[in-house]
């Protein structure tokens, strides 16, 4: 008799994707000890941007908080065009044509890489990278074995993204109904989720935020006002200011949103999603104020989860720069001025500064997601 030990056991467990990737790396390294790093980048088809998402290496990860246009990475684009993985067995040369990310990988001492495009239902979703400190390791023979593992890792990523997609779809179906009667447009959500990402990226070093956290903020941001579905039209669509009883009802949208999310998570059995608290916190606390004057809980400063402080700034900035039923759109100068005024009072100072410091990127997003472009 012998005890067979399932090498892949960890992968069946209820673990965050990051831990599964680290586990997968450990398992793969037992067979292929030259593999020093596994990394995943995700693709945003709307902006054609590739973003770092997850990696298996420790603190010395060379490539965090990095993003590039797919069009600026010809070698990666080429992989996609051919639909086949790419082997680079010598990453040592440094000509000027090399992109920043390849240079950083090189500097870290990686000598070879194997890059596989990931597809889900025929759609390109990102790349999977295997890196090695040794050159000439990715031989034909090795790759036929490694591919099995590569597809396993890719399935793990797809599984996580699909779960997130189901959650988003479930919530969107409901929020879509809301937005049919909400003066906020879809573009508001496109913009504010990207402002949130700018803020998170900018704070990443100071707050030690990893790429997965940042990506989840980006994914969950559009759901912040889901609770507005519970607010009657007469209040939600009122063309003028709200009276105090209407205001009190309006203010229940954040707590309602959190409750809806909890319902959907339990009804759909989605409680395995890593970072699901981020979503709940965003819905519940995006109208808290750092001086305690916000709702629903009157939390102060760091009692308000960071993700909610980030979303608050992105949401208010986009509300100010957009036309509302009771006000015209403000220009950026005026809106940034107001943000500065209420920083430290309503809004978190670091989050406000992070947005203002990245004005160029903010304006780029405003160009990309103009109201009149989609209606
Ligand atoms: P929202 O459209 O998502 O607004 C987000 C936040 O942006 C507001 O949260 C507020 O903090 C900020 N904001 C928007 N416009 C202005 C402005 O002109 N000046 C300042 N200082 N801040 C602004 P808030 O106040 O908690 O409102 C939550 C939601 O309640 C809003 O969501 C909106 O749907 C609704 N709402 C608020 N005020 C009115 C109103 O006067 N009339 C109507 N019809 N709805 C309102
Ligand atoms: C990466 O590992 O994230 C990119 C390196 C490459 O382009 O091979
Ligand atoms: C809206 O619901 O979009 C208008 C109200 C606001 O911006 O506060
Ligand atoms: C917040 O409460 O965090 C947003 C600022 C505001 O309500 O004016
Ligand atoms: Fe809100
Ligand atoms: Fe909003």
**Helical element count?**
16
Runs with pLDDT <50, length 5+?
92-96
- The overall pLDDT, averaged over residues, is 84
Separation of the first and last Cα atoms: 69 Å
Write the topology of this structure.
Layout: H1 9-12, H2 17-31, E1 35-44, E2 49-55, E3 67-69, H3 74-82, E4 86-88, H4 100-107, E5 112-120, E6 123-132, H5 140-181, H6 186-207, H7 211-220, H8 233-236, H9 244-250, H10 253-267, H11 276-285, H12 306-321, H13 332-342, H14 349-357, H15 359-368, H16 371-374
The structure holds ligand C2E, succinic acid (3 copies) and fe (iii) ion (2 copies).
How would you explain this protein's 3D organization?
The protein has 16 helices and six strands. It is of the alpha+beta class and 375 residues long. The protein has two domains: 149 residues, GAF domain (Beta-Lactamase, 2-Layer Sandwich); 189 residues, Orthogonal Bundle (Hypothetical protein af1432), CATH 1.10.3210. A six-stranded antiparallel β-sheet has the order 3-2-1-6-5-4, with helices on both faces. The site of one fe (iii) ion (FE) has 6 residues, from helix 10.
In short:
The chain contains 16 helices and six strands.
Q: What labels describe this entry?
A:
375 residues; Hypothetical protein af1432; 2 domains; 6 strands; binds ligand C2E; binds succinic acid
């Amino acid at each position: 008799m012998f005890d067979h030990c399932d090498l892949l056991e960890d992968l069946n467990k209820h673990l965050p994707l990051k831990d599964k990737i680290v586990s997968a790396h450990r398992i793969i390294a037992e067979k292929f000890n030259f593999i020093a790093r596994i990394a995943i980048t995700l693709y945003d088809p709307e902006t054609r941007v590739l973003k770092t998402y997850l990696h298996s290496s420790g603190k010395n990860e060379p490539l965090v908080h990095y993003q590039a246009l797919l069009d600026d990475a010809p070698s990666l684009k080429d992989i996609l065009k051919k639909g086949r993985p790419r082997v680079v067995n010598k990453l040592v040369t440094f000509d000027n044509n090399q992109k920043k990310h390849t240079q950083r990988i090189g500097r870290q001492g990686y000598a070879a890489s194997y890059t596989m495009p990931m597809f889900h239902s025929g759609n390109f979703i990102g790349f999977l990278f295997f890196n090695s400190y040794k050159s000439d390791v990715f031989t034909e023979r090795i790759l036929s074995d490694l591919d099995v593992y590569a597809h396993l890792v890719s399935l793990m990523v797809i599984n996580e993204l699909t779960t997130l997609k189901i959650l988003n779809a479930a919530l969107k179906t409901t929020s879509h109904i809301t937005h049919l009667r909400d003066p906020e447009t879809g573009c508001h959500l496109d913009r504010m989720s990207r402002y949130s990402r700018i803020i998170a990226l900018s704070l990443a070093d100071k707050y030690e935020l990893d790429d997965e956290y940042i990506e989840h903020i980006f994914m969950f941001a559009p759901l912040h006002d889901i609770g507005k579905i519970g607010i009657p039209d007469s209040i939600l669509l009122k063309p003028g200011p709200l009276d105090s009883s209407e205001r009190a009802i309006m203010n229940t949208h954040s707590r309602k949103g959190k409750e809806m999310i909890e319902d959907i998570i339990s009804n759909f059995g989605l409680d395995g999603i890593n970072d699901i608290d981020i979503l709940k916190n965003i819905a519940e606390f995006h109208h808290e104020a750092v001086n305690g004057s916000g709702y629903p809980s009157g939390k102060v400063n760091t009692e308000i989860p960071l993700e909610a402080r980030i979303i608050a700034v992105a949401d208010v900035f986009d509300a100010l720069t957009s036309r509302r039923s009771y006000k015209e759109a403000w220009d950026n100068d005026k809106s940034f001025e107001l943000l500065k005024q209420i920083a430290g009072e309503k809004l978190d100072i670091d989050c406000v500064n992070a947005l203002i410091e990245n004005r160029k990127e903010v304006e780029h997003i405003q160009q990309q997601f103009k109201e009149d472009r989609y209606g």
